[in-house]
Design brief:
Radius of gyration: 21 Å
Number of domains: 2
Low-confidence stretches: none
Helix content: 40-55%
CATH topology of the largest domain: Ribosomal Protein S5, domain 2
Bound molecules: alpha-D-galactopyranose
Oligomer: single chain
CATH class of the largest domain: Alpha Beta
Largest sheet: 6 strands, mixed
Distance between the termini: 12 Å
Strand order of the largest sheet: 5-4-6-3-1-13
Length: 390
């Protein structure tokens, strides 16, 4: 999709003469560090080159008009700045509306409404952060349209997360919005979610590539299961805080956790706490390994991460476990794990260049035979964070 095409469709959709500016915000894949971002731990995501595009123009009244080329059946959704309340019927527009609401909550009133055209090429329900990219995109478009220049890209990430939490009811951490706003070509972001300090690590995998496999499966109740995990981790933390002076589970080493975990009363919460602590330490070690070009160790830690998500955090599902098992048993695969929130979505694997073709055909065939689903594969290019295009 080119900027010119989006501008033309914008003009046709909103019967407008003006040439609107065009923006892009990427989706993300997380290489390691899952469900650590609301536990004060580290994450290691990178921005993709697929994402969400938008064109925007301000109006001279308080109306908001949204059109998504991905949801043409919904037509132009008309609402206003005086109607920023979550509503199931508002469908996808709850995301941009939530961000506008959040920007206003944080002290920037929009002087007038806007028209917004959206087009996204992240597969729906894939867990590659189509909603976070839409949130960051909206924040950036609103910031530029109204000259809210004091909002940094990091502020836009936080605003997107606030909207997701408070407007859309998903108690997510900061990882997805941060990756979409702050991504950098060919790098992953090593982010400490307790302080928001971060460094970029060059993803140099020698003779290997990152391959995403989309299971095409998304189990229902993902939001409530996600929110349950978050609550269980918080219970684990509370129990530990009775005996330890810690702010988050990210403050603990594995040995400290093991020595104190008997204080977590509920065995389920104990397992959740274990994942949060071990996964954080694993992420730190994985980034160290990558920085010293030890791709094999990085892959091994990815495998451990999957086992922990499967057994301790219990956020995998049979289809994803099958894809990961198949990958582990395919020559030339250095590591493979589920990526993202869980219960379906995608796996991420490190595959040697000369094994990628076989990986795609053999996993695709075996997965289809067992589940009936056609997996999709994306060989990843790491892109930049959200920016203006035209
Ligand atoms: C979802 C959330 C993120 C993060 C991941 C799990 O993508 O939006 O904040 O918690 O799940 O790592």
């Amino acid at each position: 999709m080119t900027s010119k095409e989006l501008q033309t469709i914008f003009q046709e959709t909103f019967a407008s003469q003006a040439l609107p500016p065009v923006y892009f915000a990427p989706g993300r894949v997380n290489l390691i560090g899952e469900h650590t971002d609301y536990n004060g731990g580290h994450v290691f995501p990178c921005a993709l080159t697929i994402g969400t595009y938008g064109a925007v123009q301000k109006r001279n009244d308080r109306k908001l008009r949204f059109y998504s080329m991905n949801f043409p059946d919904m037509g132009v959704v008309k609402t206003s700045l005086d109607d920023l309340v979550p509503d199931k019927k508002a469908g996808w527009t709850n995301y941009p509306k939530g961000v506008i609401w959040a920007i206003e909550q944080k002290g920037h009133s929009l002087p007038c409404g806007l028209d917004m055209l959206i087009y996204g090429n992240i597969p729906n329900g894939s867990g590659l952060s189509s909603s976070a990219s839409l949130e960051v995109l909206t924040g950036l478009m609103v910031r530029d349209t109204f000259g809210f220049d004091d909002l940094s890209m990091q502020d836009l990430a936080l605003t997107g997360q606030y909207a997701e939490n408070q407007y859309n009811g998903m108690n997510c951490g900061i990882m997805d919005q941060f990756a979409s706003a702050m991504g950098k070509k060919d790098c992953a972001i090593f982010l400490d979610t307790a302080t928001l300090e971060y460094t970029y690590a060059s993803v140099a995998l020698k003779d290997a590539r990152i391959v995403i496999t989309n299971s095409k499966v998304k189990h229902s109740l993902v939001t409530s299961a996600y929110n349950d995990r978050r609550r269980e981790s918080e219970t684990a933390l509370k129990d530990l805080q009775a005996v330890l002076d810690i702010q988050t589970l990210g403050d603990l080493t594995e040995a400290e956790f093991d020595a104190n975990c008997s204080h977590i009363a509920d065995p389920v919460c104990r397992r959740r706490g274990k994942h949060a602590v071990y996964e954080n330490q694993r992420t730190i070690r994985a980034v160290e390994a990558l920085n010293r070009h030890d791709v094999e160790e990085f892959g091994r830690l990815m495998n451990e991460s999957h086992v922990s998500m499967r057994d301790d955090y219990e956020i995998s599902c049979p289809e994803i476990d099958l894809l990961v098992d198949l990958a582990w048993n395919t020559p030339g695969v250095l590591g493979s794990r589920m990526t993202g929130g869980g219960f379906g979505g995608c796996t991420v694997s490190i595959v040697k260049n000369d094994a990628v073709e076989h990986f795609v055909s053999s996993l695709g065939a075996a997965y289809k035979e067992s589940t009936g689903h056609e997996a999709e594969f994306y060989v990843v290019d790491i892109g930049d964070g959200a920016h203006r295009l035209d």
